[in-house]
Inverse folding.
């Protein structure tokens, strides 16, 4: 085995971890894969003979790349409505995939990613690297270009934002599926009262249609059970094209309009009620998702 093959073999052992870091940072598998590939190119050009911890070195490289990508994205994104739903990881309703399980460990659901999107790039990096992957603040500080104390404060602000939001369901997937099935059946039947029974009184629905018209009419966010139930009536025409799926490890739906994907719905459920629905209906980004397990 030559040096390049040996280096490639070592890199591949770290790839799943690096991909998980990048996905949590970016909320996009395609961008995460780009960051990991760029890290491989940099590794090829670098002299790492004095690197004792290659995994740590690669994690730092990927983190820097993700920070640059987040800053660039924030500078160019124009979204006056302020709603951005990250690109979810989709699996069949009963599918299991070891690599997906690694990506979705630590309850990194779609609702959590939506909250992470509201953080500044530096806050997101400090929180993800410390709270999810356990990196000490003195190692994170040089990446964000701040002091250790300031970096700790960045993570603390992010942590408060995350704790103040509903970021995951509190019931298992089987129970989540029962609630989602009830929602879908009520939407298909146009049963307003049945919809109200599965919606939390303060339910929030967010829809990201990219540059296209929102599923929610003039706004991209609807609050309250009655308002959400009324919006679900507009979904009735497409409800027959809804398929069960795991959306970032939780019960969700992928909706097809004929053969074309129309939307992905991620649900957050507390007890027996839906408290949040996050909808990705951006046609351009839907085309990039791997939906083979539900088609």
């Amino acid at each position: 085995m030559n040096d390049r093959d040996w280096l490639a073999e070592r890199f591949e052992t770290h790839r799943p971890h690096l991909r998980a870091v990048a996905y949590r940072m970016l909320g996009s598998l395609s961008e995460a894969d780009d960051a990991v590939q760029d890290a491989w190119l940099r590794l090829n050009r670098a002299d790492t003979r004095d690197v004792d911890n290659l995994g740590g070195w690669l994690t730092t490289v990927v983190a820097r790349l993700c920070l640059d990508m987040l800053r660039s994205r924030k500078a160019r994104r124009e979204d006056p409505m302020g709603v951005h739903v990250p690109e979810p990881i989709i699996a069949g309703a009963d599918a299991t995939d070891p690599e997906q399980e690694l990506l979705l460990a630590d309850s990194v659901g779609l609702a959590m990613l939506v909250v992470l999107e509201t953080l500044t790039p530096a806050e997101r990096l400090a929180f993800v690297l410390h709270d999810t992957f356990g990196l000490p603040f003195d190692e994170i500080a040089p990446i964000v270009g701040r002091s250790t104390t300031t970096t700790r404060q960045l993570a603390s602000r992010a942590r408060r934002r995350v704790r103040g939001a509903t970021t995951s369901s509190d019931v298992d997937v089987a129970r989540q599926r029962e609630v989602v099935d009830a929602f879908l059946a009520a939407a298909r039947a146009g049963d307003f009262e049945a919809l109200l029974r599965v919606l939390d009184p303060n339910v929030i629905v967010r829809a990201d249609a990219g540059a296209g018209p929102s599923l929610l009419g003039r706004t991209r966010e609807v609050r309250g059970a009655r308002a959400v139930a009324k919006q679900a009536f507009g979904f009735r025409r497409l409800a027959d094209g809804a398929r069960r799926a795991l959306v970032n490890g939780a019960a969700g739906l992928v909706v097809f309009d004929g053969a074309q994907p129309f939307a992905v719905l991620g649900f957050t459920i507390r007890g027996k009620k839906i408290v949040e629905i996050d909808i990705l209906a951006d046609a351009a980004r839907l085309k990039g998702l791997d939906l083979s397990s539900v088609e």
Observations:
- The beta strands are 90-92, 199-208, 221-223, 242-247, 250-257, 260-270, 273-280.
- The first strand starts at residue 90 and ends at 92.
- The two ends are 42 Å apart (CA to CA).
- The mean pLDDT is 87.
